[in-house]
């Protein structure tokens, strides 16, 4: 998928390589380091590329029209700053704004989801959803999650060798969300197909192959079908309330205020779109990291109580979401640069989480007992801190902890295949034997 746009980015970057000829000196070329996901080896591991960006140009004006921020200090500042926006209408008119506005144009997901609203709308939506999505409610789900995990492990034991992505990492978060919401007679296979089509909307604008006409039409059709499906389910749930999260969302109230049907559709779609895929990647990426670092796998087996900190280290070491974006509303000093108003600022979570300035000289190594592991920014910070972070952590703790305890001979049985995405980074295939 990624290689389709390689010539476009290469051409844009090449224009910056030539230094004008000066009197008495020949024309020279110098290769500035720009963010380029088409760099050889990037799909397998982008982290050396990120290190070069941190060391040479941590607040970078990219030739394709956005700013790219790669150090932990600047990434943390941007994502927690309440003066920044997430609403695309604040972008300066141009290709980036056009693409964002056209992708899933004028839909509930785009207009009233928490991830694309600023205060006071964001504050209201988060408050209403947060009244249901509480730490206590999440903790109460552990027995259900444990039962689902153990059932999957039984099937894996019977098979002997499986694709762990397909057999374990992928279905678990989907089943958890579906069960938690109390979805009536939902077609799980179709829901998965639709969310897979829509996850492209989480990729960064301007540099991904997603924006060809065929893909744009597929995204729009998937959004329309999923939105219609959710509207029918919400209408049914209003008539048949039960002890589940979706019923609680339909009844969530603050000072007489309720979520509208459009807002309900958007938040439920967001749970499936962002919550499912990021947790899939957290589980898959964490298992791969352990299997590629047998000393850390042995440490976890010898000290199972490390699983909580291990999940934080998995989030840091191979973040399931590599980037998030903000938009400047005024001139914005950052590092030694000043970013103009109306600019798209892409903050690189994956790079910030490997910053040696915070995590030490061994930041590129997996250490499940790392003291600073929780300083990662994988769930963002500030007002847009991930509301589902507690659920993702719980699923990963139960899934990975019970997997490695159940199968002492767990091992990779072939090469890992990555999904080719720039932002939602995870493995498409994880062949293992048990």
Automatic annotation (TrEMBL):
Belongs to the cytochrome P450 family. Its cofactor is heme. Coiled coil: none annotated. Keywords: Heme, Iron, Metal-binding, Monooxygenase, Oxidoreductase. It comes from the Bacteria. PANTHER family: CYTOCHROME P450 YJIB-RELATED, P450, PUTATIVE (EUROFUNG)-RELATED. The keyword Oxidoreductase applies. It comes from Lysobacter hankyongensis. This is Cytochrome P450.
